[in-house]
Design a protein that fits this description.
- By secondary structure, the protein is an all-beta fold.
- It has a domain of about 40 residues.
- It has no helices and 2 strands.
- The chain has a two-stranded antiparallel sheet.
- It is elongated.
- The relative contact order is 0.20.
C-alpha cells in the first residue's frame, strides 16, 4: 500500500496489491571468441538457463586493457 502526499501533507492510501520480487537469474555460459581484428572482437555465449522470474534485458562485457591478461 502506498500513499502520495500533496502540498497540504495528506493523501489517500492506494488499494492493496500483491508484489513479487524476482530471484537472482542463472549465470550465462562463458564467452567464447568468434573472431577478432585490431578494432573489434566478436564473442558468443549461451544465455542464462533461468531468468529468475524477470526477463534479462541485457548482458554487459568488459575488457581488461592489460595485454596478456584475460
Amino acid at each position: 500500500m502506498v500513499r502520495a502526499f500533496n502540498k497540504a501533507g495528506s493523501g489517500a492510501n492506494s488499494t492493496i496489491i500483491t508484489c513479487y520480487t524476482a530471484t537472482i537469474p542463472g549465470q550465462p555460459g562463458s564467452p567464447q571468441l568468434v573472431s577478432s581484428s585490431a578494432t573489434q572482437i566478436t564473442v558468443k555465449w549461451q544465455p542464462a538457463y533461468d531468468d529468475g522470474g524477470s526477463p534479462i534485458s541485457f548482458y554487459e562485457l568488459s575488457m581488461d586493457k592489460i595485454e596478456g591478461l584475460g
